[in-house]
Amino acid sequence: MKIFTAAQIREADAFTIAQEPVSSTDLMARAAGRCADWLLDRFAPSHPFYIFCGKGNNGGDGLVIAHRLLEEGYQVTACLLEYGNRASEDYVYYYRRLQQQYAGRIREIADVTGFPELPATAVIVDAIFGTGLNKPIEGWLAGIIHKINDQHGRHTIVAIDMPSGLMADAGCRNTPVVQAHYTLSFEFHKLAFLLPENASLVGDVQILPIGLSPEYITHTPARYHLADKEMMHTIYTPRPPFAHKGTFGHALLIAGSHGKMGAAVLSAKACLRAGAGLLTCHVPRCGYDIMQISEPAAMTVTDEVQDHSAHFHEQADARYKTIGIGPGLGTAAATARSFEKLLSTYKRPMVIDADALNLLSVYPSLLYQVPAGSILTPHPKEFERLFGPSANDFERLELLSKQAVRLQLYILLKGRYTAIACPDGAVYFNATGNPGMATGGSGDVLTGILTGLLAQDYAPKAAVLLGAWLHGYAGDLAAAQLSQEAMTAGDIVACLGAAFRECFY
């Protein structure tokens, strides 16, 4: 699914109006009608609605919603914010329509003192500003937003299109923003919805289809995308009937150190569950028995050193389709030297995670030796150690994309909506997964999955998109079975088979 900018969304509206054809007022009615349907399904008539409307098209949506709810017998107060002299044409059209039939349900507000007293069961609908907002909200309108937010713990707040004050494509620091419990948006996710700093503002986002032109959507390029099941079906490759274990590649996993062999085991299990034909694990001598007993399907090679690995570069040869390195590896000086030698000799795309990322941050010159097309999988702190701090999530996203292009790597930044930056400048967000995956070893499982897919000759872009999606989906299945609280990283591995089966069989 493409994620369009605010300007592109306006273009999509205009293109639909011109090509369908449909009038702008009818398109507004279509969009607002979807919101009204959602509200009618969720709230009984016992809930009075207070719909706060600005004077642009977002306010017009609010007027349409008010009219529809009134027709259905709901108690509605349309709170019209009187600022400036100009209103959009569609707003004026629906204002006159509402005034003709329900003039008594209109309340004009010209300053903060006009904010109404709300009964206990009231629902607040925010239709003040949408994607057209391009500057911070100031003055008494800011006071209205503060008043709405004061009701957050007592009343349900539903934002239409965008929480007022939030910008689709830029940060919103130092400006008031409505804190919505639900955001009802149209056709596309906005970039702002996917960034951690806005989670408390947008609440539960519902994307409502409104029939914007498929032609525009298909032919208009987008920098940002939301990975979905449909995309995964285009990536997934079924196994040929005469395949054998050599068909699906031989992977090398370099992982583990004293006290951290669990990370290596989890990663190895995930690699094999993801479909690698053969797996060799290079572990320190202390990990030999652990790996052989925990995952007998993996071959195990031990380092000369007891507690950590220092000679794994000697194993990295052409027999391995790919290498996964980092889970539980440790950052000993000898490990760093071996990593440097590995990067100087092995030139296929590899997966770099955990302590291998920490080594790159300590020795940043090694970043330029990482083979093109490799996959880095940092969490936010690891990303900051690698590339420096950012003032906000938008700046961090720009930095993420810039570094992926500069280094010609795939950089997977872990989070609720994991962001995957590609060497061509595109960025994909992964929507699967849940808070139960915030548990030790979850990242090690992801490393194993990605390594297993690369071993099977998935291209790096396909591997990182499919791997992130499967990782999150298996986590969702685990949470459904066990709860978010009780699930562990091993449960994600255990659910990988079901994730493949439910999605591709």
UniProtKB/TrEMBL annotation:
The keyword Secreted does not apply. Its EC number is 4.2.1.136, 5.1.99.6. GO terms for molecular function: ADP-dependent NAD(P)H-hydrate dehydratase activity; ATP binding; metal ion binding; NAD(P)HX epimerase activity. Its cofactor is K(+); Mg(2+). InterPro entries: Carbohydrate_kinase_pred_CS, CARKD, Nnr, Ribokinase-like, YjeF_N_dom, YjeF_N_dom_sf. The keyword Nuclease does not apply. Residues 228-503 form the YjeF C-terminal domain. CDD domains: YXKO-related (cd01171). Keywords: ATP-binding, Isomerase, Lyase, Metal-binding, Multifunctional enzyme, NAD, NADP, Nucleotide-binding, Potassium. GO terms for biological process: metabolite repair; nicotinamide nucleotide metabolic process. (6S)-NADPHX binds at residues 57-61, 130-136, 161, 263, 328, 379, 444. AMP binds at residues 414-418, 443. Residues 9-218 form the YjeF N-terminal domain. K(+) binds at residues 58, 126, 164. Homotetramer. Catalyzes the dehydration of the S-form of NAD(P)HX at the expense of ADP, which is converted to AMP. Together with NAD(P)HX epimerase, which catalyzes the epimerization of the S- and R-forms, the enzyme allows the repair of both epimers of NAD(P)HX, a damaged form of NAD(P)H that is a result of enzymatic or heat-dependent hydration. Catalyzes the epimerization of the S- and R-forms of NAD(P)HX, a damaged form of NAD(P)H that is a result of enzymatic or heat-dependent hydration. This is a prerequisite for the S-specific NAD(P)H-hydrate dehydratase to allow the repair of both epimers of NAD(P)HX. In the C-terminal section; belongs to the NnrD/CARKD family. This is Bifunctional NAD(P)H-hydrate repair enzyme.
